[in-house]
Amino acid sequence: MSAKVEAVLAEECGLEKDRLIIVGVSGGPDSLCLMETLRQAGYPILVAYFDHQLRFESSSDAHMVEKTAIRLGLACIIDGADVRAYAEQKKISIEDAARTLRYRFLFDLARKRKAQAVAVGHTADDQVETVLMHFLRGSGMSGLKGMSYRSVIKSFDPDIPVVRPLLEMWREETVLYCAVNSLRPRHDSSNDSLNFQRNRIRHLLIPTLETYNPKIRETLLRMSHSLKGDYSFVMETLEHAWQETVASANDEIVTFDVSRLTAQPVGLQRNLIKHAMQNLYPGVDISFQTLKRALEYIHSAGAAPRLDLKAGLRMYHESGMIHICAPHAELPFDRWPQISGAEPISMQLGGQVSLAGGWKFTCESWRLTALAKEQAEENDDPFQVWLDAGELPETFELRARRHGDHFSPLGMDGHSQKLSDFFVNEKLPQRARDQWPLLCVGDEIIWIPGFRPAHRHRLKEDTNEVLYFSVQHPPEKNTSEENPQH
Question: Residue 125 class from Cβ within 10 Å (0-12 exposed, 13-18 middle, 19+ buried)?
Answer without folding.
Answer: buried
